[in-house]
Design goal:
With 197 residues, this protein is mainly α. Helix content is 48%, strand content 5%. It has a two-stranded antiparallel sheet with strand order 1-2. Helix 3 packs antiparallel against helix 4, helix 4 packs across helix 7 and helix 4 packs across helix 8.
Length: 197
């Protein structure tokens, strides 16, 4: 084949690819025109960052645990965050809620576990119908369960300034009050990943 034809073909393909790239542009960018120059520039259209200092204001306490999450657990994280926003509470409240659910259920919406069950505890937060948290149907609904937990958290005077484990324990009244602390870092990471998603 003639080298001139090959060169023209290669240049033509490169030109199409270049033009296509300019016209299509990256999917994650928005185009803006500078008013004074009329020049089009590319601006990153990122979501606002989460203030990480707000997530763990006192630093983590003790050794931290971490688990891998499946799709159901991740959906429960997103449900907790959505309920927190709906309740008008901030990212720190979401961290406390997620850390609590990590300790209580590993973010699984648990039904009655028979002999392995702690009395009649169920759902993400292991709330008990007999303790007034709601019906079984209610406490196994992630939005309802989170809203109930947050209602309790709001009643804890100064919860924002408490270590996570103390705030969670005041709501949950667990037999293992210090166990919530081990999930603070993973909870903060999950809020960072999903608060603006």
């Amino acid at each position: 084949m003639n080298t001139t034809i090959l060169r023209k073909t290669a240049l033509g393909i490169a030109g199409l690819a270049f033009t296509g790239g300019i016209l299509a542009g990256p999917a994650t960018h928005a185009h803006a025109t500078t008013p004074t120059t009329g020049v089009t520039t590319t601006v990153q259209a990122d979501k606002p960052a989460v203030d990480k200092d707000k997530l763990i204001p006192h630093g983590v306490q003790g050794d931290q645990s971490r688990i891998d999450l499946d799709d159901e657990q991740t959906a429960n994280v997103k449900a907790i965050i959505a309920a927190t926003k709906k309740a008008g509470m901030d990212e720190r409240a979401a961290v406390v809620s997620i850390a609590t659910a990590l300790q209580e259920s590993k973010l699984e919406n648990l039904g009655h576990l028979g002999d392995r069950n702690d009395h009649d505890s169920q759902g993400l937060f292991q709330q008990r119908p007999s303790s007034g948290w709601g019906t079984v149907e209610q406490i196994t609904d992630p939005e309802y369960a989170t809203t109930a937990f947050l209602k309790g958290l709001k009643q804890v005077d100064g919860w924002q300034d408490m270590p996570l484990t103390k705030a969670a324990q005041t709501v949950q009244v667990s037999a293992y009050p210090d166990h919530y602390a081990q999930w603070e870092q993973q909870a903060a990471d999950l809020v960072t990943d999903h608060w603006n998603s």
